[in-house]
Design brief:
Length: 379
């Protein structure tokens, strides 16, 4: 039995263990606290666990221990249908494709302003701190309704909360979203907070609290990893500069980046609530399973040469934004924002390149979401 989690591969890529585990089926591994679970690593198995309601997130959230979605009390991610729909349906409407389309001009303006400021600064520069982090914090604060002026404080509180578990930072952030909900009751606006007013004040604040964290940390880390991939991954040479003149390519490139460098090498646990057959294995009620999205999106049975970055890969049926009940509610927003970022970045800095060897770039040890400590670039 292997101990889980596994270390990332070279340059933050997929753990090498997943290459062989896909041939096993549903391997049993041991978490750091000794809990034994099964890993779903094949594409078909991961898709089944994500979409089959016989696998419960709520039961997994109540498992003893911490980590991998246990006892995190994030609200939306810890619920099963039908309770899940109470919070999720308003959020889906708030982040629907037509709403995102309306926000595109303001997002482009925000990203353009940030890339202009970054390009005017000293070089080499850290793309994480100087570009990815402010784009992520400013965009999610603007869309939620807090405004870009709150972005620096929100980012600081989230960083402190996640780094040290600061109760003060958590309380400050929670109060900010509670105050926002109160303001929107009196003064509605075209933002996500207003779209959630059909919920109770407490539920709306809970959803906004989680959205701020995932929107800031998730997008910051993904943007940094994706730019790194375009500057260093095999098969990515010349792709970034081409996006300024080939805008039709942007969507495919974003999807391949999501597949190639997904947000994490682990996943949120599920518990089988009744007997389920998976890959020829009968999972008894109570069996704990982790769907590993990163492994599924590199399954050689589904993706040709999955270890290679292919900017024109079609079809690209990755599951990096999830699937089923708990798919990423911001999938339209993520694709739109990342496309804008890449287009603006290459337009302003067509000769962007790493300022240090790719092997020296420091990748974070956090499993979900994976990120980059700093990304020194020049142009």
């Amino acid at each position: 039995m292997r101990d889980f989690p596994f270390p990332a591969g070279p340059m933050g890529t997929l753990p090498v263990e997943y290459d062989t585990m896909g041939k096993i089926g549903l391997p049993v591994v041991s978490l750091p606290d000794g809990m034994e679970i099964r890993l779903a690593v094949r594409y078909s198995d991961v898709a089944a666990v994500l979409t089959d309601e016989r696998f419960s997130r709520a039961l997994a959230a109540d498992l003893p221990g911490t980590g991998f979605g246990r006892n995190q009390r994030t609200g939306l991610l810890d619920l099963d249908p039908p309770d899940h729909a109470v919070l999720r349906d308003p959020l889906d409407r708030a982040l629907a494709a037509d709403r995102v389309e309306r926000w595109l001009p303001s997002l482009r303006s925000l990203v353009h302003e940030q890339v202009t400021a970054f390009a005017a600064g000293d070089r080499p520069a850290d793309l994480v701190r100087g570009f990815a982090a402010p784009v992520a914090s400013r965009s999610i604060c603007a869309l939620v309704g807090l405004g870009v002026a709150a972005a620096a404080d929100v980012a600081t509180n989230i960083d402190e909360m996640l780094a040290s578990g600061s109760a003060e930072a958590r309380s400050t952030l929670r109060k900010a979203v509670e105050d926002l909900v109160t303001r929107r009751r009196a003064e509605p606006a075209d933002d996500i907070a207003t779209s959630l007013l059909e919920l109770s004040d407490d539920d709306a604040a809970t959803v906004l609290f989680g959205l701020l964290i995932s929107g800031y940390v998730g997008n910051r880390n993904a943007l940094a990893r994706h730019v790194f991939a375009l500057l260093a991954a095999p098969g990515a040479d010349g792709v970034l500069p081409s996006l300024a003149t080939r805008p039709e390519r942007v969507g495919r490139v974003v999807d391949e980046l999501l597949r190639y460098y997904p947000s994490g090498n682990d996943g949120l646990l599920r518990v089988a609530r009744e007997p389920v057959w998976l890959s020829g294995v009968l999972l008894e009620p109570g069996t704990v399973v982790m769907p590993v999205i990163a492994a599924a999106s590199h399954d050689p049975e589904v993706f040709d040469r999955p270890e290679v970055f292919d900017p024109d890969r079609e079809p690209n049926t990755h599951v990096s934004l999830g699937r089923g009940t708990h798919r990423c509610p911001g999938d339209h927003l993520v694709r739109a924002l990342f496309g804008i970022v890449l287009t603006e970045l290459t337009t302003a800095l067509p000769r962007l390149r790493l300022a240090i060897p790719a092997s020296e770039v420091r990748h974070t040890d956090d499993l979900l979401p994976l990120g980059i400590v700093d990304l020194p670039v020049t142009w």
